[in-house]
Amino acid sequence: MKMSFLARALLAATLALSAVPGFAAGPADLMASADDDALAEALVRRRLSQDDLAPYHRLEVVVRDGVATLTGSVRTKSTLDAVVTEVGKVAGVDRVDDRVKVEPNP
Asked: CB of 74 within 8 A of CB of 48?
């Protein structure tokens, strides 16, 4: 069986990508990971909007591969500590990447 150049190139690319961990996982695994991150992000946003935390910060959050990245500002260091602690408790968050600035008068 003779393969065309394009067929050989596609086969080679498929084999090469299957060795890369992110591509070795099936599409279902990748979708599940994205769904888990979206759920965790929604849970973090809900927690940050609750009355005990909401008035004290201006934050954005993105969750990717279980890492919640926080950006924005808070008024005090103690608020930042509380936010990081609470975000770390959210299901689906394995680690918090704190990129938040403390600005008493944002």
From this structure: no
How far is the C-alpha of 83 from the C-alpha of 31, rounded, in Å? 28
Residue 57 has which token pair? Answer: 């910060």
> Which CATH topology does 26-102 take?
Histidine-containing Protein; Chain: A; (3.30.1340)
**Cβ contact 70:101 at 8 Å:** no
Q: Render pLDDT for 20-50 as a digit per residue (tens, 0 to 9).
A: 555 445 545 444 567 889 999 999 888 888 8
pTM summary value: 0.65
Structure-block tokens of residue 73: 């500002």
Residue among 64, 66, 29, 63 at smallest CA distance from 48: 63
Percent above pLDDT 90 for the chain: 43
Q: Which residue has the tokens 């979708």?
A: 31
Query: What does the alpha-carbon distance between residue 77 and residue 74 come to, in Å, rounded to a whole number?
Result: 8
